[in-house]
Amino acid sequence: MEPRINRELFDGPQPVGSLVFQPTEERRRSGSHYTPRALTRPIVEEALLPWLERCGGKPTVVQILALKICDPAMGSGAFLVECCRYLAELLELAWNREGLPEALKAGGSAHGEEPLIYARRLIAQSCLYGVDKNPFAVNLARLSLWLVSLSKDAPFTFVDHALKCGDSLVGMERSEIEKALKGASRQRELQMEYLEEVRQQEARSFALFHADSRNDADDAQKRQALDDLNASTAYLRTVGDLLVAAFFNGKKQKDREELKKLYLEATLQHDTAASLENELAEPLERLREGEQGITPLHWQLAFPDVFGRPESGFDVFVGNPPFVGGRKIKEALGEPFQDWHQCQYPKSSANADLSAFFFLRCFHLLRPGGSLGLIATNTIAQGDTRSTGLCWICLHGGTIYAALKRYKWPGVAAVVVSVIPIFKGDYSGSKLLEKRPVEQITAFLLSNGVHDDPMPLRANTGRSFQGSIVLGMGFTFDDSGPADDETPGIPSPIATMNRLIAKNPGISKVIFPYIGGEEVDDSPTHAHHRFVIDFRDRSEEECRQKWPELMELLEKKVKPQRQEKKPNGEYKQRAPLPEKWWIHADKRPALYAAIAGLDKVIANLFISSTFGFSSLDSKIVFANTLNVFPLPQLSGLSCLQCRVHEVWTKFSSSTMGDGIRYTPSDCFSPFPFPAAFLESVSSDPAHEVTRQNLEAIGERYHQFRAELMVSNNEGLTSTYNRFHDPAETSSGLLELRRLHGEMDQAVLNAYGWSDVPTACGFGLDYLDLEDDAQLPDDLQDRIDSGELFFWEPDEACAFEAQVRAYGAVKGKKKLPWRYRWPDDVRDDVLARLFALNAERYGEEVALGLHGKGAKKAAWPATAGGKRRGRPPKATQAGETAGVQVEQMGLGL
Fold first, then answer.
1. Are 478 and 494 in contact (CB under 8 A)?
2. Distance (Å, whole) CA 535 – CA 537
3. Cβ contact 301:116 at 8 Å
4. Distance from CA of residue 53 to its chain's centroid?
5. Fold topology of 320-451
6. How confident is the model at residue 610 (pLDDT cuts 50, 70, 90)?
7. What are the counts of helices (DSSP H) followed by strands (DSSP E) for the chain?
8. Has this prediction a pTM greater than 0.70?
9. What percent of the chain is predicted at pLDDT more than 90?
10. Which contiguous run of DSSP H or E holds residue 372?
11. Which of 32, 87, 302, 625 is in the most buried spot, having the most CB atoms within 10 Å?
């Protein structure tokens, strides 16, 4: 245990039985770090900036004390304390301009208190609100505000009306509660009278709450007002809790509606909160108790002075809400909690981080012209979390006016966060991204482009395919592993294939070379070593008549697995696979129709740790581990292999371990290719020159890479691992890097983006270190800052050597270096691509390419400029595939 002892707190191991204090990983995992002042102060200032600008930089006393600021997950009150300090400073300046209040003058009720301390007390009582689901946190926040206002002689409970215990994300709108109550009541007039009495009590109580408490009598009066208010709203709060309970106690929407009706019927017999709670104690206890219990917070009932104003809502939200990643929400907080958010926000994703829902909730509760400044996980601008939170907000009237995408948490916590202020409305002030002035900030936290997800482009339709799903290795012939002619589920020897062809040469028409990810990734020449039987869509009768030997083989090798049954007698495989056991599970007729007549196609691995595209012979069957692209060969290779497409893919794809999952629907279909590459016929001579340039660099890059792989006897993975390794100094890899940069420049020129700098360095997108690693402060600071990009290979190697010297690399594996553009260049190119995608999609919509009966967009001629002849015209994909079988089989 000695390496884990915190040397800042203890000299070393302690005697048996000693108490020790050890910081753990729990705060990092739960995203619940105490927010230090170095972070709270700038966030508070940024969140209040739009309000301060409206006040001309010099707010009046009235304007300051009218502010309503809330922290929706206040913890021990760090943000509220900072708001108290900051606004008190502004209030003291306002008094200097307008004159001191009577309380601070000689003989006033403040008893000679310092103006700043008195100002803090007024701010705490008038302007600050907070919510937390933990009752202990609420007490700590109350204590924090009491201490910051130095009110040792004043009552402790002066902010009880403003700090509430409850779940900020779960509660009912007041209008919904009142509507449900009125609808269930047979005495509507009495309910209307009750609701009006509640509003009058709220007005009386809050007039007292915002006055300064100076003695026990003031405090007693406030406490009585709070008791009266709580008593008057208790019935409404209980009804609200029951509406929430109906949702959380029901599994399906129908069940929830029935429970809601049942619970509301109880309001006909019970006209007090106590009797209603007693009648429905069991469902309320199920909601509130237990490890995943919920205490709903009905915002309009909790803070009626905030939502009873002419412009309802808070002026500002600030805070550091918890982070819980996507699917972990169900595990940590329960499935009903996750369902609640899906119902509250129908466009949201179950994969979104919990922090995205805090952004949505706070934005909803802001008044027009209000602003929020929240800390978020640095995934807030990525994937489903972005589309759920920032994207929705930006498309519904919100403006991001400042953002820090990767901000190192001050202090000891090794956490990188994002800090994002948002204005509810059209913000006309200056906007800062990473402290640099920009025209706009998108939901991707980029300075250019659009907020919404990229849209699929019609121009890319029919140009990307996944390979065949064979579903049965008994279809194959392969000598690289176990093989025989009898055992189901394993290949047959290639000698068997040769023997069958010798006996019946017609068999060669339905046996094809078969290639998958292993051959493409590991073989220097992408050579295949397997063959596969592929009958395409032919009937059993035709196959038995023409190729009885193969059908006999498949009956032994494939049919038993395809027709395996469950204990209940049903087939394990989906229909019609058991009945059509002689054909592949997914034959991909559209793929083979698209490549019919082509010499070459481009392919890449569906999942790969590298980013590599290859040119392959088209006369083969491709495994489902490959994506296949029937594109103009060498110019297409340039456009797909370049860093422009790599940047796009890295952002758009999901990951599997260390690998990238290249899904054509995400990575290819929305990708906006250069216009010159798309146009098959153009009157612009410059476009023809551009295509020639793309073709030329594609040919040189591909040819050199192929020769390098053969000379080194390495496949794509090994080659690109060395390509990205800063310690690699061989002349061949250095030349490949140079050619890659030349290819990048040609593609950027094709877009008209010659202003983009193409210089590369060595970067780490992540760094996985041992949890108990002890590193020097300067090295740890660099790691924590996220600045893991080095222009020179020597610098990158020195950094890695230093980290390894302290035994800090988890698993002792190689660091995931990438030879790439720096982050600002990547972001710039990505933003341009998003904007271009939106432009192209708009053009296609205008041309009628996305409606019913839409036309197909034109693309250039495929296949390295050469076709062996167009396939015969066919009316169905199956017919085209049948023609292709005759063209592609081994009989060629």
1. yes
2. 6
3. no
4. 33
5. Rossmann fold (3.40.50)
6. confident
7. 37, 24
8. yes
9. 54
10. strand 366-377
11. 87
